[in-house]
Write a structure and sequence with these properties.
single chain; 431 residues; alpha+beta; six-stranded mixed β-sheet; four-stranded mixed β-sheet; 14 helices; 35% helix; flat
Length: 431
């Protein structure tokens, strides 16, 4: 997910009394169940906890209309009602299954004993109201690869061509595939962008907000809004001015124009930055975008609440794209896997990675990979951690002290630090 599991748990505990065990149990089930809804539950927990620290927050307080919005907030200076939602491009990816195509082609390559990597897949698009990749529907993609692409790969393998090239350009698909068995260990590809919002109302962001505006917020009354968390949607990716696509602010303004019952939209976009370190380090941060109608006198008070709320947010540990991908997987995100610090007398490694090494799940030479089996099919050089422990053994040095260096709430791991003693005659020559 976007935030560290520890920070989410701390916030769950922080709203446990406010929401009650029944509602907490619902959130916990959603957070523990792999799938896109994990992201929505994550945003609800983070927003609820942050707002509860800023004023009086009530969850699913029944209104006169009978609806039960997520948030009824009041702090003396302002009162508002809001629902929290999460927007993703999952539907667009379902209609444009490029990644699934690449996965299926790689499966064919593996079964035909072609080496990993060396694959380049380019897909064309048709452009109408929206851009759509020229691919068969997802449910027909496996049959298409097996019946149309696999025989062409096999035919060229039998002919012993140096590079396999396949071109399909008809009413079924527009695909160009190159396989270089002696090429790079990595794969590449390209396709036209199909997720940029080129229509104000025909895009996932507008649809997510519309569902809330036409639902239980319709007759809420008072200052009413929608809080949108980023579940990996290109519509929240950047402001796109002059790039042929609408900005998130423009899309939210269109919703306010069409739904007079909604007074504000708060977009919580996860953006990427680069820290001025040596070497430069990339990081993620939450960028709030408050959209209200021009001249609304309540803006300053609401903006002040949002500013305080954002100060209570945890720091993202993943981008929206990586967070959404991890949310669909079972198991847990990686911690400090592959990381280390060392000197002549100390070796510091990931606590979780060390536990997995001791349990026989991985070795340090797996490089901290999430998919150990895949990493071993294309092994890299020996790990610096392995080399450091080997050097210590050859010098006859054993640990003199082992300590735990705790990680913070925004980390998914601790560190284990080994202090190395002087040469020990138990494993070295007498002197």
């Amino acid at each position: 997910m976007i935030f560290a599991r520890r920070s989410i748990q701390r916030r769950l505990d922080g709203i446990r009394e406010l929401l009650g065990e029944k509602e907490i149990a619902k959130l916990v089930r959603r957070l523990n169940n792999p799938g896109r809804d994990r992201m929505a539950a994550m945003w609800e927990v983070v927003v609820f906890c942050a707002l509860a620290k800023c004023g009086d927050l009530r969850h699913e307080e029944p209104l006169a209309s009978g609806s039960k919005p997520d948030i009824l907030y009041e702090d003396g200076s302002i009162r508002f009602i809001a629902d929290v939602t999460c927007v993703s491009d999952e539907g667009l990816h379902e209609r444009n299954p490029y990644e699934e195509l690449v996965r299926l082609i790689n499966e064919v390559k593996s079964r035909l004993r072609l080496p990993a990597g060396g694959l380049d897949v380019r897909v064309a698009a048709r452009r109408d109201v929206r851009t759509t990749l020229r691919l068969p529907p997802r449910k027909m993609l496996q049959e298409f690869v097996q019946k149309e692409i696999r025989p062409l790969i096999k035919e060229q393998m039998d002919a012993r061509v140096s590079q396999i090239r396949i071109m399909i350009d008809d009413d079924r698909a527009g695909i160009e595939i190159t396989i270089d068995p002696a090429g790079s260990a990595f794969s590449s590809g390209s396709f036209p962008s199909y997720d940029a919002p080129t229509d104000l109302v025909s895009n996932p962001l507008y649809n997510a907000m519309k569902a809330k505006a036409s639902g239980q917020l319709r007759d809420a009354g008072g200052l009413t809004g929608i809080i949108v968390g980023d579940g990996d949607s290109a519509a929240l990716g950047d402001d796109r001015i002059g790039l042929g696509a609408y900005s998130p602010k423009q899309i939210a303004e269109e919703l306010l124009r069409q739904y007079s019952s909604i007074d504000f939209v708060l977009l919580l976009a996860v953006r990427e930055g680069v820290a001025a370190t040596v070497p430069p380090r990339s990081y993620s941060f939450v960028h709030p975008i408050l959209v209200m109608r021009q001249g609304d006198g309540r803006r300053n008070d609401l903006a002040a609440v949002i500013k305080r709320m954002m100060q209570e947010f945890p720091m993202p540990t993943n981008s929206a794209a990586n967070g959404a991908r991890r949310a669909t997987e079972s198991g847990y995100d990686l911690g400090h896997h592959g990381g280390y610090e060392m000197s002549d007398d100390r070796i510091r490694v990931s606590a979780r990675e060390l536990m997995e090494v001791l349990a026989g799940i991985r070795t340090f030479d797996d490089g901290g990979a999430l998919n150990v089996e895949a990493a071993r099919r294309n092994p890299g050089p020996q790990s610096e951690i392995t080399k450091a422990f080997l050097r210590a053994l050859k010098k006859g040095r054993l640990p003199s002290n082992v300590s735990v260096v705790p990680g913070g709430d925004d980390e998914n791991d601790n560190w284990i630090e080994f202090e190395l003693g002087e040469r020990d005659p138990a494993i070295s020559p007498f002197r």
